[in-house]
Amino acid sequence: MKPLLPVDEATKRLLEAAVPVADSETLPLADCDGRILVADLAARLTQPPFDASAMDGYALRSADAPEIGSVLTVIGQAAAGHAFTGTVGQGEAVRIFTGAPVPTRADTILIQEDAEVLEGGKIRTTFEVAAGRHIRPRGQDFAEGETVLKAGRELGFTDLTVAAAMNHATLPVYRRPLVAILATGDELLPPGSTPQPAQIIASNTFGVAALARTAGADILDLGIIADDDALIRAAIDKAVAAKADVLVTLGGASVGDHDLVQAALKAEGMQLDFWRIAMRPGKPLMVGAIGTMQVLGLPGNPVASLVCSLLFLEPLLRSIARRAPLQRVATARTATPLKANDHRQDYLRARFHTDENGVLMAEAYTKQDSSMMKILAHSDGLIVRSPHAPAVEAGTVCQVIRLKA
């Protein structure tokens, strides 16, 4: 029998075949969160567009208040959106509020806490005055024509804020990759159903779809397909017709009498790259392509399916979506002893905590049966055990993968 493919080699081959999306779309600013910017984005105006007051107080000429106790006459008011249209002359001041344009010839702001209000529309300074104080100069943030956001940037809430401030109502972004998900099996029913004997509830699709969305993809759910070659091939055709970037199949990728997916994919033109990985859980993983659509055949077992999605589907989709890889890998110490490993790479579900010295500790669950989904839901991450790793005592340094990046 052909030896199982090492995990590192499988990952390398999968990502080498990834083709980043090239087509783009222009979307309203409100729809661009998490999208990747196609082109450099330049400011369409200068911000702030005028010298602006940074505080509530009084705009005046610093030369008119050479010492504490200087008295000035208030000649008007300036507020955000309502500029004072006159000129500040000798011995004069203008009541001003945050964000308002600084009046002509004024060169400083005396904050209101440092001004004593006198009768007759006058104020007295109670703190020293300095030129330029509490004034945001025109263009302090950015100037018209200045490139503020670079192409390839993953847009977050701060980016959308500055894009709006630069007067952009729409942005050019790369489209999200499309992932088609196909679950197969006569035994599967959707959640909310009443299973009959020998039937179970299909759960993989929801976790795989959620992980794919957070990686930047849109989902085409092809539903649950019975173990019927014609039906499976028809579902595959739907994925091809939709121009999916990735087709994810759940279950049926082996070569037993009831495992029809691999044969159906080959009949639809799939070029098989590799199948069967030296890992646990997740050994039946299959990778291939139908034209430009990559195919990732995940095990039907929910735990194995989700572990494989984390290790293979997420980095694949982030590469296609032009997103940077997530840094999930960390170093920890084992909280309990671990037995020797065999020829496969193990991913042990584990809880994490930090000891009194701030060291990350990883405690593997005693039972690692891949039928136990509850353990994965309660896990903080996975302890990685290399093939042929010897038994280790508690406190040994190990590599872990965080479930939450």
SSE diagram, text form:
Blueprint (H helix, E strand, L loop, with lengths): L6 H10 L7 E5 L12 E2 L9 E2 L3 E4 L10 E8 L13 E5 L11 E4 L3 E4 L3 E4 L9 E2 L10 E3 L7 H9 L4 E5 L3 E7 L3 E2 L10 E2 L2 H11 L3 E8 L3 H13 L4 E5 L10 H7 L3 E5 L3 E2 L5 E5 L2 E6 L3 H19 L8 E6 L10 E10 L5 E5 L8 H6 L2 E5 L11 E6 L3
Parallel strand pairs: 5-6, 13-16, 13-17, 14-15, 17-21, 19-23, 22-24
Antiparallel strand pairs: 1-12, 2-11, 3-10, 4-6, 4-7, 5-9, 8-9, 18-20, 20-21, 22-26, 23-24, 23-25, 25-26
Helix pairs in contact: 3-6, 4-5
Question: Any overview of this molecule?
Answer:
The chain has 405 residues and is of the alpha/beta class. 19% of the residues lie in helices and 30% in strands. It contains seven helices and 26 strands. The chain has helices at residues 7-16, 157-165, 204-214, 229-241, 261-267, 302-320, 373-378, and strands spanning 24-28, 41-42, 52-53, 57-60, 71-78, 92-96, 108-111, 115-118, 122-125, 135-136, 147-149, 170-174, 178-184, 188-189, 200-201, 218-225, 246-250, 271-275, 279-280, 286-290, 293-298, 329-334, 345-354, 360-364, 381-385, 397-402. The strands form seven sheets. Strands 7-4-6-5-9-8 form a six-stranded mixed beta sheet, with no helix packed on it. Strands 16-13-17-21-20-18 form a six-stranded mixed beta sheet, with helices on both faces. Strands 22-24-23-25-26 form a five-stranded mixed beta barrel. Strand 23 and strand 24 form a beta hairpin. Helix 3 packs parallel to helix 6 (302-320). The longest helix has 19 residues, at 302-320. It is elongated and about 95 Å long.
